[in-house]
Amino acid sequence: MKNIDDLVESAADLAERGLSKGEIADELNVSRETASWLVERSGTGAEPKAAPTGGPHDIHVDWSAIGRDSSRLHHVGSAMADLLSKQGEDVDLTIGIEKAGAPIATTVARELDTDLGTYAPTKHQWDDDDSGTNDGTFSRNFAQIRNRDCYVVDDTITSGSTMTETVEAIREQGGNPVACVVLADKRGLEDVQGVPVYSLLQVIRVGSDDE
């Protein structure tokens, strides 16, 4: 994906396949506001709208060159595991944030010799016509928290809300999130709820939004 038209086309395709705007935001690695704007601009499910002159201030991270190749994903996951390797001595669980964070977490868990769990965040249920008050969930098909120390893995941080939600959900289950790691951090966060955040890439915006 190299331009806005590609993103609009992708958003339209995902919307036609029945994904919520929260899931579209996750698939395209953009904010909820950007996902909503892309769907509206495409005219999917409604009369086509005139394209806004501006649009949300956001940065799209396309890591599909990594995701579509298992060998590349393994090497990137190994690098992310290395960022976590000195954080905590008794960590035996890695939590991947669905959807994109789960395959990365699989590699990280293998490198660090931990169990694997996954968390589906609230944003997957978000759309313009619902309240977004449904809770996220930990999959019962993978390892459970059970008062364990754990790492948290995702692909990108856009606003930080999903990572914050996941950290809080782990604590509500009695777990202790020791550290978080992502491929790319669009916010440049040092920590979330007191939990350190590490990233392979940090995206830094230079200049004001008006420029």
UniProtKB/TrEMBL annotation:
CDD domains named among the record's database cross-references: PRTases_typeI (cd06223)
Phosphoribosyltransferase domain span: 63-200
Top-rank taxon, per record: Archaea
The keyword DNA-binding appears for this protein: yes
Swiss-Prot/TrEMBL keywords: DNA-binding, Glycosyltransferase, Transcription, Transcription regulation, Transferase
InterPro entries the UniProt entry points to: GcfR_halob, GfcR-like, PRTase-like, PRTase_dom
Free-text comment on this protein's domains from its UniProt entry: Contains an N-terminal DNA-binding winged helix-turn-helix domain and a C-terminal regulatory domain (or effector binding domain) resembling phosphoribosyltransferase (PRT) domain.
NCBIfam families recorded: PRK02277.1 (NF002620), transregGfcR_Halo (NF045507)
The family this protein is said to belong to: Belongs to the purine/pyrimidine phosphoribosyltransferase family. GfcR subfamily.
Name of the featured protein: Transcriptional regulator GfcR
Gene behind this protein: gfcR
